[in-house]
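[worker-b] picked up task from shared queue
[worker-b] task type: protein-ligand structure
[worker-b] ligand name resolved to NAP; SMILES cross-checked against name lookup, match
[worker-b] sequence length check passed
[worker-b] input payload:
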Amino acid sequence: MTALALVTGGSSGIGLAIAHRLAQRGHNLLLVGDREHELNPCAIDMERQHGITCHTLCIDLAATDAAQRAFDHCAAQGFEVDMLVNNAGMLLFSEAVLAPKARAAAILLLHVHTPTMLCRLFGEQMRANGRGHVLNVSSISAVMPYPGISLYGPTKTYMRYYTRALRNELKGHGVHVTCLLPGATETGLYDPKRVNIPLAKRLGVMHSPQFVAERAVNALLSDRAECIPGWVNRLTMMLLPAVPSWVIRFIHRSTGLTDTGQRALG
Ligand SMILES: NC(=O)c1ccc[n+]([C@@H]2O[C@H](COP(=O)([O-])OP(=O)(O)OC[C@H]3O[C@@H](n4cnc5c(N)ncnc54)[C@H](OP(=O)(O)O)[C@@H]3O)[C@@H](O)[C@H]2O)c1
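[worker-b] inference finished, payload out:
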C-alpha cells in the first residue's frame, strides 16, 4: 500500500497551497478535482518541486456517488489515505428560493454529502489502522446565516459542527481531526478589478492561500480542534453572532448585494 494525503480541490487556491505544504513535509499526494487540465500540471509541478509522488483523480465531487468512487479508486490503486483534506467548495450568491435548482443541489452535495461520506469511508480505515489525519475546510461564514449566502453559510456551519463531533468520536483511536475556518483568502473567488486586494491584505482582512495553508497544516499536525487564520477573522467570528437580525436585513435591502447572481469559487 502507498500512503498518501488526499486533497479535494487540490489544484487551486487554499487546497493547492495545503498540498504544497504537505508535499514539502514529504507526503505523497492524491489531488482530486473536476478539471483534468488543471490537475495534471499541478501534479507535475508538485513532483518536480518536492520530489514526492503526486497522483490525480478527476471526478465531480458534487455527484452523489463521488466519495464511493474516490474510495474504490484508492482501493484499486493500492493507496492508503492516511490524511484526508476536504477542501473543495463553491460559492453561491443567491436567495435560497431563487437559487438555480442544480446549483442548490450541488452546493449541498459538495459541502455536506461528499465530505461526510469521504470521512465515513476513509475514517473507518484510519480508525482500524489506529492512525490518520482529517482536515475539513469550513469558513468564518459558519457564523453567518445571512441572506444571499443562505446556502453557503449554513453548509459551512454543518462542516464546523460535524468536524467537532467527528473529532470527539475519533479521539483515542489515533485519528486527529481539525476544522479550518478561513476568512477572505486571495483565491479565484475575488475579482481583483472589483476588490482592492493589496488594501484588503494590508488591513488584515484578506490573507494569501499560503498563509492560510501554513496555519492549517500546523494546526492539523499539532492536533488542534480549530484553526481560524488571522486575528481579524478570530475577532470577526466572536463579534458577528451579536449583530441583530434587523441590521442584517437592513444591509441586505440597502446593498442588494446578493440578488440571484451565482458564482463558483475559482
Ligand atoms: N477564498 C475564500 O475567501 C474562502 C474563505 C473561507 C472558506 N473558503 C473555503 O475554502 C475552500 C477552497 O476554496 P478556494 O477559495 O481555494 O477556491 P478555489 O480556488 O476556487 O478552490 C475550489 C476548489 O474546489 C474544487 N471544486 C469545486 N467544485 C468541484 C466539484 N464539483 N468537483 C470537484 N472539485 C470541485 C475546484 O476544482 P476545479 O478547479 O477542478 O474545479 C477547486 O480546486 C472552499 O471550501 C471554500 O468554501 C474559501
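[worker-b] attaching auto-annotations
[worker-b] The pocket of NAP is lined by residues 9, 11-15, 33-35, 38, 60-62, 87-90, 110, 137, 139, 182, 184-185, 187-189, 265-266 (CB under 6 Å).
[worker-b] releasing lock
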